[in-house]
Specification:
This protein is of the alpha+beta class. The protein has 2 domains: 238 residues, FAD/NAD(P)-binding domain (3-Layer(bba) Sandwich); 142 residues, Elongation Factor Tu (Ef-tu), domain 3, CATH 2.40.30.10. The chain has 13 helices and 21 strands. The strands form 5 sheets. Strands 1, 2, 7, 8, 9, 10 and 20 form a 7-stranded mixed β-sheet that branches. A hairpin with a 4-residue loop joins strand 5 and strand 6. Helix 9 packs antiparallel against helix 12. The longest helix is centred in the C-terminal third of the chain and has 16 residues. The chain is elongated and about 85 Å long. The structure holds flavin-adenine dinucleotide (FAD). Flavin-adenine dinucleotide (FAD) binds next to helix 1, helix 2 and helix 13.
Length: 405
């Protein structure tokens, strides 16, 4: 994208990061009459929006509210989320005549392509007369008497206010960087330790070996982790992989999982497996694996029994003691396992942690100790569930900031 404006220039607002939050913020500020420059180091615009939602961008969730977000300071996101709601974003989408549909649980996707959302945000930036510097590397950000001075590969840029919208650490291949965290540290802000979230969980190779034949099996489960205030549970689809577990259920729980802690999975929710197996025993001539295959997917029944209770599946259910049936049923209802780790930032959809919100103003996203410096989007310690929530936070924090700068 061509740089417009003079090489050395002064603006009211410099937004660093032209992703979801940055473009939204720049558009809103520009349309308020602020002179805005939007800077990004990537060659292609908004790659994360492009690849999101399998190319169709799950751009919001109809039911998004503070309860769908994880943060060291859970109330922080309330203000921005209530001032810019999914309905507001839908109104914008409607103005740009973008067709969309609801998948499940309030998840809203483009009918055609996530490119529609990128085009919409570009058009909104154009309507606000936003100047672009892209690709452009920001070498330093310094504070002076009259605001900030940025040294960049496209020359010096002066700005009264700087907005950091450089996102989280996942997927460095498409431009993610730790820039936002470095700037936060440079200006003395605290960081909540970042970690990959919405990410597949892995297990050590030896303990996972018996479950490898289940790779590809998918089913709806209840999944939980933690206890007390740290407890979380979801009903979603689980996917077995060669290295561990994935699918929405695991992505959701991964955001709450603490290293070293177990996760607990009910592989047959809504089925009273103990009662059903004991009932099937009376006069049952079938093998246990066949009986179980009537209650859960066949491959799961066969392979899970082979892995967890070798030899039992081939025995006739009538010949098995109640105790063994109870053990099988309870093992499937409360399958407890401790992941060794996650697939990391290469496969994570978001970063947990980030700039500590206790140092930010919830109305304006401005650093309390550094007037004129704002942080929005994923770089902030507000992490949404899977299902359009992270974009809603990007839009809402971008709008809150764009209205304030
Ligand atoms: C595979 C995948 C699928 C996803 N699908 C969804 C989905 O369907 N729904 C949903 O809600 N969320 C989804 N997410 C999460 C969502 O994409 C992010 O939470 C969201 O994009 C965050 O917005 P942001 O503006 O904070 O950061 P980003 O959109 O990541 O934008 C950050 C921008 O900053 C730029 N940047 C980074 N470092 C620098 C630097 N040093 N200098 C200059 N520029 C820099 C980047 O190039 C980028 O353009 C998905 C994520 C991934 C990885």
């Amino acid at each position: 994208m061509a740089a417009d404006g003079p090489r050395d220039a002064a603006f009211d607002v410099a937004v660093i990061g032209a992703g979801a939050a940055g473009m939204m913020c720049a558009a809103v500020a520009g349309q308020r009459g602020r002179r805005v420059v939007l800077i990004d180091h990537a060659r292609r615009l908004a790659e994360k929006i492009r690849i999101s939602g399998g190319g169709r961008c799950n751009f919001t969730n109809r039911d998004a509210g503070p309860a769908n977000f994880i943060s060291g300071n859970p109330h922080f996101c309330r203000s921005a989320l209530s001032r810019y709601t999914p309905r507001d974003f839908l109104a914008l989408v409607a103005r740009h005549r973008i067709a969309w549909h609801e998948k499940h649980r309030g998840q809203l996707f483009c009918d055609e392509s996530s490119e529609d959302i990128i085009r919409m945000l570009r058009a909104e930036c154009d309507a606000g007369g936003v100047a672009w510097r892209m690709p452009c590397t920001v070498e330093s950000v310094e504070r002076g008497d009259a605001g900030f001075m940025l040294r960049t590969s496209s020359g010096a840029i002066g700005a009264e206010r700087v907005v950091i919208a450089t996102g989280g650490l996942p997927v460095a291949q498409i431009g993610a960087s730790d820039f936002g965290l470095r700037i936060a540290r440079q200006f003395g802000l605290k960081i909540v330790e970042p970690r990959p979230a919405l990410v597949p969980l892995t297990f050590d190779a030896a303990s996972w070996q018996p479950f490898v034949p289940l790779a590809g099996v998918a089913l709806e489960v209840d999944i939980r982790t933690g206890s007390g205030r740290g407890a979380a549970s979801f009903r979603e689809d689980l996917l077995f992989t060669h290295r561990g577990l994935s699918g929405p259920a695991v992505l959701q729980i991964s955001s709450y999982w603490q290293p070293g802690e177990p996760i607990v999975i009910d592989l047959a929710p809504d089925v009273d497996l103990v009662a059903d197996l004991l009932a099937a025993k009376a006069g049952g001539r079938q093998h246990l694996a066949n009986v179980l295959a009537g209650m859960v997917p066949r491959r799961l029944a066969e392979q899970w029994l082979a892995a967890a209770h070798p030899g039992l599946g081939e025995q006739r259910i009538a010949d098995l003691p109640d105790k063994a049936l109870r053990q099988v049923a309870e093992g499937m209802k409360r399958w407890t396992l401790t992941p060794s780790g996650t697939e990391g930032y290469r496969k994570a959809e978001v970063m947990r942690g980030g700039v500590d919100t206790r140092g930010l103003d919830q109305q304006t996203m401005e650093a309390k100790a550094v007037p004129g410096l704002h942080f929005i989007g994923e770089v902030v310690d507000v992490t949404g569930w899977l299902g359009g929530y992270n974009f809603q936070w990007a839009w809402a924090s971008g709008v809150a900031c764009g209205q304030a700068v």
